[in-house]
Amino acid sequence: MTVRLLIADDQELIRTGFRLFLQTQPGLEVAGEAADGHEAVDMAAELRPDVVLMDVRMPRMDGVEATARLTAAGSPPRVLILTTYDLDEYVFGALRAGASGFLLKDASRDRLLEAIRVVHAGEALLSPSITRRLIEDYATRTGPPRPPAALSAGLTPREREILLLVARGMSNPEIAAHLVVTEATVKSHIGSVFAKLHLRDRAQAVVFAYENGFVQPGGCR
Predict the structure, then answer these.
(1) Among 5, 34, 156, 217, which residue has the least CB neighbours within 10 Å?
(2) Residue limits of the Response regulatory domain (predicted)?
C-alpha cells in the first residue's frame, strides 16, 4: 500500500529536500507541497494524504492551527510535526491539536522514514526523553488540576498505573519490563485506557494525563 504524503513548510529548500528524498522511497508518494498552514488545510482536503509532514512556524497559519483544523475534519490524515528544536514552544500545542508526534528536522533519513511508517500505522511518535522534557515543562508552567473522580474511577489500578508510565514517556517494552508483564499485556491495557477515555493514540494519552492532573512533574498522584 502506498502512503500519500503532504509536505507543509514555508521554506522551499526544505520542502524540495524532503520531496527529492521521499519520492524515491518504495511505498511512499509525495502528493503535494504547501507553503503555509492555509495551503496545507486546503490541499489536504483536495489530495487526501495519509500523512502530513507539518512545520510549526509558518506565515498566515501556523502548524498548530493547521493541525487542529485537519484533525477536526472527517477521516483526518495523521500529522507528524517537524520542528527545529526539541522544546519548541508550539510542539505541545500541536500535540493537543491532534498531532501524532513530532520529529526534529535534523533527524536522519532512516529516522524520518521510520517516523512516517509509525504515524501511518496509527501509533504516536514520542521520543521518551523529549516527551518527558516537553510535557513536564508544560505541566510546570500550568499547574495541572486533580483528575475528576469519574475519570479515576473508570480505570482499573493497572490501567491507571500504565497511563502514568505512558505519560512519563516510557515505551511498551519499557513498561512491560517495569511491570514484569508481556508487551501484549501492556498493549491490551493501553487499548482499554484509550477506549475508556476516548483517546485516539499515545500522544493524546500523554496530553490527557498531564492536563487532567493524573501526573505532575517528577511524580504522580
Answers:
(1) 156
(2) 4-120
Final residue in a domain of this structure, among 94, 125, 156: 125
CATH number, domain with residue 73: 3.40.50.2300
Q: Stretch 13-27: mean pLDDT, rounded? A: 94
Number of domains in the chain: 2
Q: Kindly state the average pLDDT of the residues 130-138.
A: 60
Q: Are residues 51 and 93 in the same domain?
A: yes
Residue 153 has pLDDT above 80, yes or no: no
26 grid coordinates:
518504495
Produce one character per residue of 55-83: b if its CB has 16 or more CB atoms within 10 Å, e if not.
bbebeebbbbbbbbbbbeeeeebbbbbbb
Instruction: Provide CB contacts within 8 A for 149, sequence distance 6+.
Output: none
SS3 label, residue 198: coil
